[in-house]
Structure formats: C-alpha cells, structure tokens
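Moderator note: this is an archived Q&A kept for reference. The question asked for a predicted structure of one protein chain; the sequence and the answer are reproduced below.
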Amino acid sequence: MDILDIAVVGGGPIGLACAIEAKKAQLSYLVLEKGCLVNSLFNYPQHMTFFSTSEKLEIGDIPFVSVNPKPKRLEALEYYRRIQQQFQLNVKLFEQVVAVKKTDYYFSIQTTKSAYKAKSVIIATGFYDKPNLMNIPGEELPKVKHYYNDPHYYANQHVVVIGSSNSSVDAALETYRKGAHVTMVVRKNEISSRVKYWVRPDIDNRISEGSIRAYFNSCLTAIEEASVHIDTPEGPITIPNDFVLALTGYKPDFDFLRKINIELSKDELLIPQHNPTTMETNIPNLYLAGVVCGGMNTHLWFIENSRIHARQIVKHIQEHRK
C-alpha cells in the first residue's frame, strides 16, 4: 500500500480547498467524505441563501459566478462540483473514516470501505452532522426534525420552530407562507442579532402582526404526539402540534476528535488544540481546517475566513519536510 502525503477527512469546501493546495504542491493526497460531495451544503434547506457573497465562497482562485447578490444552495452545489471536476480532485465519497492511528512513520486510516496510510492528516469535518439535543421527553418522536429541508411538507400543519437563528427564522417564514400554523419558541428575549439583515424586518413584522406566534424567554419541556408543552414567563402552556423543527444548532463530532486523541479545551467551548499559524494539533502532522477549529463556537469560522487554512497547512507540511 502506497503512503499518501496527505489524507483529508471531510469533502466540504474547506476539504476541497486543502486538496487543491496539495495538488498544486505536487503532494499525493486523498479526500475521504462520509456522504456526498459537500455533504453539509447538500443538507442545507433547499431554498437557503448564503450570508456571504459569492466571491467569499471561492476556492482554488476559481470565480464563483452567481445570478444573485448572495448565492443560493443550488448554485453552491454546482460550483463546488465543478471545482472537483476541474481540478480532478481525488475524492472518495460515501466512505466514512472510523479510525485514525499514528505510528512512528505514518497515520493508519480505517474507513467503512478500506484502509489507507498517510504521512499527514487534515481533519476538515465541519460541525453540521451533530445536532444539539434538547434532552426532553418526546424528542425521539418521528415528528421531531433537527434538520429542515422544504416548506411544502409542513403545509396546513401546526409547526413549532425552536430557536431564533437564521435557520429557525427561515424555517418559520417559509413554512408560514406555505400555510403552516407556526409557533416559535425562543430562549432569549428577542430574535438573534445574527439573523440576516434582509430577513430580520420580515420576521419581526410577522410576529408583531400575529401571523407567527412567538414565545420569548421560553423553552419546550415535553413533546407528545398531538401537542407540545412550553414553559413561558406567564406559566406552562400546552398547544396543538404536528411537527417540531428543533433547529437548536449543531456541533463538531467531539467523540471522533477524542477518539483520535486531539485534546479539547476544558471549558464549555471544547476548542480542539491547534496552532493558529500552522493549524497543527497536539499530534504532530495532524491538522485541523475550517469550522471544526472553533469547537462549540460555531460562529467563529466560516468558508470565507477559513479558506486560508488550506494554504497554511500545506505550507507547513512542505517546510517540515525540507
């Protein structure tokens, strides 16, 4: 078995950026992705609009041409697929990495389909795979969704949307406009300040006029087949319910990081240990790239400000081997 220079775990935009830099440096590499190409973006809501403009999502110095000021999910999927094709990137899809073990000379990488060896490993797994659970009775019911796709599915249904992030607000507005009876349950006293500026007036107005009901400083306490229980400042209430969109955010796969012996900070942020200049972790030749670097602070890194990680890592690998 040949020993690769670099194995990249994660086939999202940052993983592809790492592959491009490796190829430019004439290093042998392989990208291992447990789902489809840019799997996290594929699982975004169908009609999602990015906060970033298209040029900030570019990788490999290839222009991202969009017909909109801010591109939509479908455009991003097409762009990154064409990137993979243009650079002829070596990507293995639907092949999940289950173990990464360091030996004296290389890393041994086990997937659900095969085994590989690499001198360096880059973890670029993002954070969209693990939802933050509410840990309340009834959360396991099939009607509870931690991912939101298309609003048509919820037409004429009683829908509770948890949270006030961009994803929650988009889901509330879109399902409302398809005829759903929407109730938002928000822990804080207002809609998140991070909500896209062109969307904020829409959700505020819908709540003010009563088209969308919102309970602030409130939380869901239990979910039943035909109802939900909410703890509000005025006391507990029960309302009819058909679906719960528990869009409570997501987190990196910390179990995987611990399994491969990456050290995490002792606070609630669980930030993986890494050198911000080289992106190398506490394990020599094992690197982090992209959103995963921020631990629970998932608002720290985005595509636009973590694309640089690819060049930092490959530069360090090249210098380390001179």
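Archived answer notes: The domain at 3-130+250-320 is CATH 3.50.50.60 (FAD/NAD(P)-binding domain).
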